[in-house]
Structures are given as C-alpha cells and as structure tokens.
Amino acid sequence: MPITEDDSITAVPPKTWVRLNNPVVQNFITGLVIACSAGIYLALTGLGAGGGKPSSQYLASTSNSILYALFAVSGWVSAGFLNAFGPKITMAIGVLGYPLYAGGLWYFDASGNDWFALFGAVMNGIGAGLLFTGAGFVQFAYAEEKEKGTYIFWQHTMLSGGAIIGAIVTFAINFYRAKASVPTSVYAIFVAIMTFASLLALTFIISPKNIIRHDGTHLAKFKKTTVKEELIILPAILAALLDAQWIGIRKVRGIIGVIFTAATTISLAAAELNYFKQKVDRTKSGPSMDWSDPGYANIMILHLLWGGCFCCWTFMVQWIMGSMSNKPEVLSRYAGLFKGTSALGVCVAFAIDARKPQYWVEMSIHFALYMVAIFIMAYVVWFSITDTDYLREDGVIAPKKVVEDLVGPDGTSLDTEKSYQTEFAEEKK
Q1: pTM exceeds 0.90 for this model
Q2: CATH architecture of the region 1-231
C-alpha cells in the first residue's frame, strides 16, 4: 500500500528478496530497461555514421546535434514529469524515442530520405531525458547511503552489457558481409528489443511509494509538487551543489575517486593527443579500416580505455550527486540535471567537430574542460559531501540499522554537533 501521512513509516519486514517492491530488484529491472534501449542505441551508433552508410556522416552529425540538444533540455525539466507521473510512466514513455530513432535510420538506409531519421532524433532526444531521469531517480533514491555506488555500478554495467550484446549480434550478422550498410535484420532486431524495453517498464516498474527495504522501512513520505514548484527550485538546486559544512568519511572516498579519475584522464588524454598530433591529419582522407586490418588493434585499445574513463567520470559525478541527499524529490531533480547537462556537453562536442578542426585541437579543448571539471568535482566533494544525510532531511525514512546507530536511547541524535529530534525517535518513545 502507498505510504501516507497517517501511515506507519515501517511495514512488516519482507521474508524474501525476490519481490517487485525490493529496491534492489527495481534497480535491476531499470538496468534491463536501459540495456534494451540506450544500450542497443549505443550498439547502433557504433555501426558507422549513425547506423547508416559511411557516406551518411552528414545525417549522423545533424541528427546527433538535434538529439543531444533536446536531450539537454528534456533532462533539465523531466524531474517535474517524474514527480507527477512516477518512474513507471516516465521511463516507459522515454524509451519509445529509441525505436523511432532506429526506425528512422532504417528508413534512411533503405530510401535515402532523412525526414524520418530527423524526426526520430527529436523524439529520442526528448525521450532520453525522461528515461535517464527516471533511471537516475531509482539509482539515487532507492539505495541506502552505503549502497549508492553499487546501484550506480549495476545500472552502468547493464547499459554496457546491452551495448555489447547488440554489438555481438551485429558482428555475427556482418561477419562475412562486404557491403557498407546495415542489414535489415539488424534494424528489425534492434527495433524489437527497444520496443520491448517500454513494455518491460510498464509491466515491472512500480510506484516508489510501494518500495519496502528488507528491514520493513519505506523510502520516504512522498508529497507531489506542482510544475511551478519544480521550476522555482532549479536555482536552489544549483546553489546547493556548492553549499555544505560537513566533513566525514565519505568525503575521503570521494577525494580518492576524484584523484583516480584525474590520473586516468590525464594519462589517456596525453596518449591520444600524441597519436592525433603525430599520425592523423584531418585535411587528408584517412584509410577505411576493418577489424582485421593492421593497426586496428592499437586504435581499438585506446577506444576501449576511453570507454572505461567515461564510465569513471559518469560514476564519479553520479556518486557525488547521490551522496548529497536522500530525498526522492530532490534526487529526481539531480538525475534530470545530470543527464541534461551531460547531453549539452555532447551537443557542444558535435558543434566543435562540425567546424572540422584538427582532431588534436578538439582533444586539447576537451582536455582543458576535463581539467576544469576535475577541480569543480574536488571542490564539491570537499565542501558538500557529508558522512551521512540521514536524520537531517524531513520526510526521509532511514533504515532501522542506521537509526539504531545514530539515535541514542533518549531519542536524541548521537551527532554531538547537531541534536536532531526525529520521527523515528518519537515512534520509539
């Protein structure tokens, strides 16, 4: 049953982990949804110029610019939609843009007409913001503080798994194929899998009000907000990103993570800058390469390492944002802001590339932005991450073990700097 102001904040502890209202299960299902949609999309875009022929690079650049520009806007405003309709509807609708985009590329590859592909890019951009806002909400709000890194890890692992499976399917179909285009069977399989993802969300994603931890506690007391309230709160969220006074163990873990991410980025950027500077001239036509050609392995290794580096950045930023609050309505906004701003960065990257600078110049710009971002991450971790946010936010229901550790026998928080009275303590009395 949904939790209300008059309900108890706890329920009878469930006897099994295999249940739909288990937050771990909901995160797993969410991972399947993004694996079957965004993961397959990544496999599709890895086929060449946006999934089309090598000569269709213009369509890839145009459609991706449209897609990520709308992704940015959609991500920024999707939290209001999520808070109004919940993660089930948000993700189910968001997924629908992916089969439309794949279908548009299919139509372009078959007919040479680009209108459907551009329409699909519009719908995918809007839908991606909804999908990842919903997915981010689940990984941020459903996890206990000690589990947030694990929830983020599993979603990204399943996203990558979807891309890998899609790539394996394509590789198997194309193994003996010499024609430079995508077979109809690949498009058909991808569209079917992406459509299935929407049905998966509609069938198995449930309301966050019905989520129950294994100790019997709910996540929070939920209160719907209006669209006006959602828009007004955006400036406050941005200010909150750089406003905190607490020091704790999580801060140290965060700094270690930032240092690791910085070291990985600097090493790979130096290697790629050297490669582009020495071996690639954009003013000259480069050779077409297949996976069996000499020299392909070196490029692929660098590409794979950058994929790992991207995961480090995504994981680190999401861990930081997830560590700044436990309130579901706040975390839904963080999720939307993260994906929207990430998409804006991709859009800017396409805009830079459209001017056709040398690749080492592009890499230099990206490297400079990486360095700025590293200092920003370090600042936010040091000044904004607390050891725990439980008992400090109204409406958030802490796990029983956390309450036992933080609340003394008289119902007063054991935090000697702040004596927080909590609804949990009142219930104990």
Answers
A1: no
A2: Up-down Bundle (1.20)
